[in-house]
């Protein structure tokens, strides 16, 4: 039988072991707690990062066509020479395709942000579909809907040569409507298109389109010497725009040189 002295001598050892076990349990609990909190913080950071990207993704989807993505880090390759310091500045968007295509798009908006003019330079890549009509997207870009047919109206003479003009099918001669235009080049593979809704008469809108294309300049051709050659030759045939009656270049003079029936 254990003596009272032995029992009393064993008590401090048991207390020490109990305290050590308790301390180990506290340390383990704290370690698990820190790991849990760290995991929550990591998920929170990832969630905030994802939410921060959602607006950009929505914007890309609203602007880009299927297979196209906004290239915000790419530098503009084209510009319009200014006629007046107070002239409106275009919204410039660059879209790139994984198969090599690039679209440089300039847009002008009026009151309530409705589109009034657009100019797009499309450098074709492997995604280009020869069977797709070149005017397939023009009506949609003009805000007319994908089912609105367009008809060829006349040719406009520009520094790039004759440019085909389009209008909504059935539009009467005396009723001004938005005019679309299209110019294709085989070498280099290039398509220049857009529309203009500004101006009170058809001659004013034709003049606005001609002036826009005559003022289009190349900032950089990258690794495309054929593109630089195209614009260099076009500059030799550039005509000055007629004097403007307004500080807004889209309301230019009405006497553009035309070819074809009106």
Describe this structure in words.
This protein has 262 residues and is α+β, with helices and mostly antiparallel strands. It is built from 4 helices and 11 strands; from the N terminus they run αβββββαββββαβαβ. Strands 1-3-4-5-9-8-7-6-11 form a 9-stranded antiparallel sheet, sandwiched between helices. Strands 2-10 form a two-stranded antiparallel ribbon. 21% of the residues are buried. The C terminus is likely disordered.
The shape is elongated
Radius of gyration: 33 Å
Quaternary form: single chain
Unreliable runs, pLDDT <50, ≥5 residues?
53-64, 244-262
Q: Structural class from helices and strands?
A: alpha+beta
**What's the total helix number?**
4
The strand order across the widest sheet is 1-3-4-5-9-8-7-6-11
Arithmetic mean of pLDDT: 76
The helicity comes to 25-40%
N-to-C span: 125 Å
How would a crystallographer describe the biggest sheet?
9 strands, antiparallel
Give the ordered list of helices and strands: HEEEEEHEEEEHEHE
Strand content: 25-35%
Say how many strands there are: 11
Any chance you could write out the topology, listing elements then pairs?
Layout: H1 4-63, E1 68-70, E2 78-80, E3 91-97, E4 102-109, E5 115-123, H2 138-141, E6 150-158, E7 161-168, E8 179-185, E9 190-196, H3 202-215, E10 216-218, H4 225-235, E11 258-259
Antiparallel strand pairs: 1-3, 2-10, 3-4, 4-5, 5-9, 6-7, 6-11, 7-8, 8-9
